[in-house]
Amino acid sequence: MKFNIATWIIHCILLGFLYLPCGDIASAQSNKNNPIKIVLNNWTSQIILSNIAGSLFEKQGYKVEYVLQDPYEQWGALYRGEVHVQVEVWEGTSAKLFSRMVRAGGIVDAGIHDAKTREEWWYPLYVEQLCPGLPDWQALKRCYALFVTKETYPLGQYLSGPWEKPDRARIRALEMNFKVVEMEDGEALNKKLFEAMKNQLPIVLFNWSPNWVEAKFDGKFVEFPAYEPDCESDPNWGQNPGLLYDCGNPKTGWLKKAAWSGMPDKWPCAFTTLKKINFSNKGISELVFMVDVEKKTVEQAATSWLKKNEKRWQSWITQGCTKP
Ligand code: TMO
Domain 118-232 carries which CATH code? Predict the structure, then answer.
């Protein structure tokens, strides 16, 4: 016999929702019609992983919408339940806001990826010939003149993205003659990197791992004084006794997933899947490579991953959660 949800709901209405299961089934069904809103940010791996997560929710009968969000504003929106899922929370850029929101109860920690992350100043390898002593930051400090541009004269240019980083504070604390020039998104940064590499020009820019870069180009992160939490809270810490941020970013940061706190109740199957979703450094950089270098679309990269990794994602879906 085929289960007919409409008849069931009518039964339930007639019975005045006396039975708890009636209410549960009716609300589970209406929850399936409410779309799960997945946050999209402005770098490639986050967009591909969002797409994969969305496909896995859809396989379980959920509706999905993708909502482009500024990486700062997303936290309030997630907290208020205007959006519901974030598949990549990077320790280097988001640890503070994320933990504050989890403590306040509006956001739940949906578990950690295997990938270890780093977000830091980076240069292509040929820059070492122009600036001996790299990757040590003191070499970069001495070589600032190599990086001067029209916009930053008489200072060296450091290209960053729109993600919250204490770069200006760090430049001040380490007394470096650099100026931050902020790019709009990951793509704009890539373009600057390609241009510089084509002509082997000096460049130092924000980069992160996992990303496509390590799969394609030789280069290194700048080694600043090693990160410790005190560096960001105690001015006395480190080599500048008067200022915070006289250190680099964490070298083996975590990568987590986050959800609106109402998600586990409202969409339990999807939440369980979100908790299980897990990518490694290699997995992420291969996906990003497909899009940023091989110029496949995000959908093509996600589809090809789903095809090749069926066993893996099947194990992220609870039995009984897939559409009949
Ligand atoms: C947040 N990001 C991965 C671009 O550093």
Answer: 3.40.190.100
Decide: 94 and 256 in contact? Cβ < 8 Å.
Answer: no
Q: Is the CB of 161 under 6 A from ligand 1?
A: yes
Distance CA 56, CA 273 (A): 8
Class of domain 31-116+254-314: alpha beta
Strand partners, 36: 64
Q: Do domains 31-116+254-314 and 118-232 have the same CATH topology?
A: yes
Closest CA to 221 of 252, 181, 184, 254: 252
Q: Is 163 in the pocket of ligand 1 (CB under 6 A)?
A: yes
Chunked into runs of 10 residues, the chain (324 residues) has average pLDDT values of 48 46 60 94 96 98 96 94 98 90 97 96 97 98 98 98 89 98 94 95 96 85 96 94 94 97 98 98 94 96 98 96 76
- What pTM was estimated for this model as a whole? 0.86
Number of Cβ atoms within 10 Å of the Cβ of 10: 11
Mutate to test the pocket of ligand 1, among 47, 70, 93, 118 (most ligand atoms within 8 A of CB): 93
Looking at residue 324, the DSSP 8-state letter turns out to be -
Q: Where are the domains of the chain?
A: 31-116+254-314, 118-232
List alpha helices for the chain, DSSP H.
5-14, 20-33, 44-59, 73-80, 91-104, 127-130, 137-142, 167-173, 186-198, 213-216, 263-266, 268-276, 281-288, 298-308, 310-314
Strand partners, 118: 209
Pocket test of ligand 1: the residue of 39, 42, 43, 183 to mutate, having most ligand atoms within 8 Å of its CB, is 43
Q: Whose CA is nearest to atom 4 of ligand 1?
A: 43
Query: Letter for the amino acid at 157?
Result: Q
**How far, in Å, is the centroid of ligand 1 from the Cα of 119?**
7
Residue in this structure with the two tokens 């598949």, named with its chain if needed: 87
